[in-house]
């Protein structure tokens, strides 16, 4: 009798957890099918183009950066992923007047997947599309890791969601794929989006998952390469942090390193990438980062040095996390709002 009571209690608990705390949608289909579309081969093919000399280091407003945004736009067009702006217009134009003197007009690139049940609730996946351009000695800074790795990861995550939609498995909430410009010169693109022209109301934005450098290994982790730095996951939402941990434990068990999440971290990375412009508006964030290395902001940050299997695994982790956030029964809560 006690065994029967225990079994019924266990089943009841599992049902309650499924209904209230986790995504029942996730349990109905095999999402690994879509995660597996994010491959090292596809990432490598895209990054060898995106971080090539042809793109001239992608400095904001310069010809190479214009080539970069066209590359991103063509990817979304070719994969049937629309823009929220309509009419195949994927560019959120940012006028020259918004930038400090000497920076030319630029643009963010945006693509969109509309949710099936709660389309007005939007998850943002962001990465910066720019880099630092050509050095004074004429060398091109290709920015393969910074942030070519994040850019191609967002593209492949978008393609994975599109594969799910093609099978009739549209996420419950909407997703904005946001490629921001001007990060290297002062977080301009993300600030323009949050402070001037949010395409979707910030109050409807459930979280920002920001990807900035996830293709390399830093010196600290040479003996344990299966890692990723996470910054900001617990700053505004305990629930977001817990979801992130649970997804990793369920699918990957990689090491999450929170060194740079410390409020007293002298590097202040929490304030130095595009997620911060969302966080300052009380939107929960996670900043995914592999740490700095000897090629950071140098011409030697080239695509041949990227760890593509590791890049694919990290991108898959972010896909699973995005899937969970967009398919949970309830929107994640903010329990540590800024004053």
UniProtKB/TrEMBL annotation:
<dbReference type="InterPro" id="IPR045175">
    <property type="entry name" value="M28_fam"/>
</dbReference>
<dbReference type="InterPro" id="IPR007484">
    <property type="entry name" value="Peptidase_M28"/>
</dbReference>
<protein>
    <submittedName>
        <fullName>M28 family metallopeptidase</fullName>
    </submittedName>
</protein>
<dbReference type="Pfam" id="PF04389">
    <property type="entry name" value="Peptidase_M28"/>
</dbReference>
<dbReference type="InterPro" id="IPR018247">
    <property type="entry name" value="EF_Hand_1_Ca_BS"/>
</dbReference>
<feature type="domain" description="Peptidase M28">
    <location>
        <begin position="108"/>
        <end position="320"/>
    </location>
</feature>
């Amino acid at each position: 009798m006690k065994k029967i009571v225990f079994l019924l209690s266990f089943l009841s608990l599992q049902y309650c957890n499924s209904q209230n705390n986790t995504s029942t949608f996730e349990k109905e289909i095999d999402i690994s099918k879509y995660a597996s579309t994010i491959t090292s081969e596809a990432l490598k093919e895209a990054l060898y183009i995106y971080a090539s000399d042809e793109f001239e280091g992608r400095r904001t407003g310069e010809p190479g950066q214009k080539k970069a945004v066209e590359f991103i736009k063509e990817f979304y067009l070719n994969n049937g992923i629309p823009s929220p702006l309509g009419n195949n217009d994927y560019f959120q134009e940012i006028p020259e007047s918004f930038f400090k003197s000497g920076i030319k007009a630029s643009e963010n690139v945006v693509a969109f997947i509309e949710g099936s049940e709660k389309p007005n609730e939007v998850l943002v996946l962001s990465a910066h599309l720019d880099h630092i351009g050509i050095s004074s000695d004429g060398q091109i800074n290709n920015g393969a890791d910074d942030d070519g790795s994040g850019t191609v990861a967002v593209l492949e995550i978008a393609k994975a969601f599109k594969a799910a939609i093609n099978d009739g498995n549209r996420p419950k909430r909407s997703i904005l794929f946001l490629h921001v410009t001007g990060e290297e010169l002062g977080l301009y693109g993300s600030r323009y989006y949050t402070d001037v022209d949010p395409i979707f109301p910030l109050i409807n934005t459930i979280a920002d998952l920001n990807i900035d450098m996830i293709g390399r290994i830093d010196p600290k982790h040479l003996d344990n390469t299966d890692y990723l730095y996470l910054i900001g996951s617990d700053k505004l939402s305990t629930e977001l942090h817990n979801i992130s941990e649970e997804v990793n434990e369920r699918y990957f068990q990689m090491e999450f390193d929170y060194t740079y999440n410390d409020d007293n971290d002298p590097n202040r990375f929490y304030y130095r990438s595009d997620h911060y412009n969302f966080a300052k508006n009380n939107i929960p964030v996670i900043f995914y980062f592999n740490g700095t290395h000897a090629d950071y902001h140098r011409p030697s940050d080239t695509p041949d040095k990227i760890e593509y299997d590791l890049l694919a695994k990290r991108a898959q982790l972010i896909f699973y996390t995005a899937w969970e956030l967009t398919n949970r029964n309830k929107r994640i809560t903010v329990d540590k709002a800024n004053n």
